[in-house]
Amino acid sequence: MITTLIAAILHFDTLIPQLMAQSGFLVYLLIFAIIFIETGIVVLPFLPGDSLLFLAGSLAALSQKSLNPFILIITLGIAASLGDSLNFEIGKRFGKYLSTSPRWQKLIKPKNLQQAEVFFHEKGNFAIFLGRFMPIIRTLVPFTAGGSRMPYRNFWIYNILGGFSWVILCIGSGYFFGNVPVVKSNFTLIMLAIVLVSLIPIGIITLRNYILQKRTL
Fold first, then answer.
1. Class of residue 7 by CB neighbours under 10 A (exposed 0-12, middle 13-18, buried 19+)
2. Where are the bilayer-spanning segments (predicted)?
3. Pick from 55, 86, 60: nearest CA to 163
């Protein structure tokens, strides 16, 4: 999975410009599908989200005729919100089965799911919003919320706020900073750095849980 993620990151910066030369619609469709799948399919949390949005923002700054930043924000905000809604329903209907089945545990790592559950119970409803900014947690929190029977009305509010805030932040960062010379000349490294930085909160949660377990022994 990690290899696939890195390969995707390394090639999107060439694939999307190629598609832009053919049709801007294809680019919107491709990014919409990836964001929807990354947030909506619980077994695919490793698809590039933050880095892809950052890339889309930087390319929109170069060519607004092919990619319009406002259209990107609207369409991808919808994709992120719909994805989380699907994930919520999967958790609500099949959460218990998927989280306990040995077959599905190969894809839904119990350790990652436990981190998402701890994060959700500690932060409450606000975890839906905060989780948007953390890979893996972003995909598992709505799944956990659905399995916990969180009222959909509460989920929907934080889902919309979190989805659009995440998209605006990532696309806006790419739009304003993605074409700065030092960033542009090290684009692949910058995108990898984004992924690594966004994993820091997960590392903090893991470390804290490890320390707490040691103290209880």
1. exposed
2. 25-47, 67-86, 155-177, 189-211
3. 86
Structure tokens at 43: 């077994």
**Rounded CA separation 24/74 (Å):** 15
pLDDT tens-place string over residues 43-73: 766 666 777 888 888 888 877 667 888 999 9
Q: What pLDDT, in 10s, does the model give residues 127-179? A: 888 888 877 778 888 888 888 878 888 889 999 999 999 999 889 888 887 66
What string of DSSP letters covers 153-207?
HHHHHHHHHHHHHHHHHHHHHHHHHTTSHHHHTTHHHHHHHHHHHHTHHHHHHHH
Tell me whether residue 135 is exposed, middle or buried, using C-beta atoms within 10 angstroms of its C-beta: 0 to 12, 13 to 18, 19 or more. Answer: buried
User: How many structural domains is the chain composed of?
Assistant: 1
Alpha-carbon gap, residue 159 to 40, rounded angstroms: 12
